[in-house]
Amino acid sequence: MGIKSYQGDLVGKTATKPEQIRVEDHMNKSVVCFNSSQTILEVMDSIIKNAISGGPVVSETNEVLGIISEGDCIKQITESKYYNLPLNEMSIGHYMTKNVICVSPSDSIFDVADKFLTTKKRNFPVIHQGKIIGLISQKNVLKAVIQWEGTNWLKNHS
Prior knowledge:
Helix content: 25-40%
Structural class: alpha+beta
Strand content: 15-25%
Distance between the termini: 29 Å
Order of helices and strands: HEEHHEEHH
């Protein structure tokens, strides 16, 4: 029995270097964004209708002010019940996470994967020239790995 080529049908093709796999090629470009004056009920409705876990809170000029998540909504619901406050009067500006970690479209997908591990976040806004242009999620990273594995990047870098 002969020895099969390690590269198989990729012989003669150029392997993709890990640092060349960029956020801009794998981010979601269609992002559901919120504004800080929206109520928690409006945000919850949008989260459910769009099947998302949250989204960036942006200014009128698309600058990221914060992130609102399902967890932030749940926190607001429990505080509302405790203090007997109506949900339809509570804006998300007070409850959003304001310290937002953003990434650049030119960042390596592997650097972003490391940020996911160290920060325990589920997604990051992608910012170019101070404006949001997309969102990268953990699922986007997984899809990128599956896509690029076929081009031999896992086998050739050493």
